[in-house]
From TrEMBL:
The chain crosses the membrane at residues 29-50. Keywords: Membrane, Transmembrane, Transmembrane helix. It comes from the Bacteria. It comes from Arenibacter troitsensis. This is Uncharacterized protein. It holds the Pfam family DUF6747. InterPro entries: DUF6747.
């Protein structure tokens, strides 16, 4: 749990005092999008690995 809090602190501090607010919003949306894409790629890899599909 401490690791997640550390990552949260890094994420929050990365966007502190950024002046163009719309850029901050776009970067936050993009980071959530990237996290979703990475999780889907990991899911697809694990699904193929455990169900016996050939790569």
């Amino acid at each position: 749990m401490g690791t997640l809090l550390h990552f949260k602190n890094i994420y929050v501090s990365a966007f502190e005092n950024c002046k163009p607010e719309f850029v901050v919003v776009l970067l936050k949306i993009y980071s959530v999008f990237c996290m979703a894409m990475l999780s889907m790629a990991l899911y697809a890899l694990l699904f193929r690995a455990f169900t016996g599909f050939e790569f």
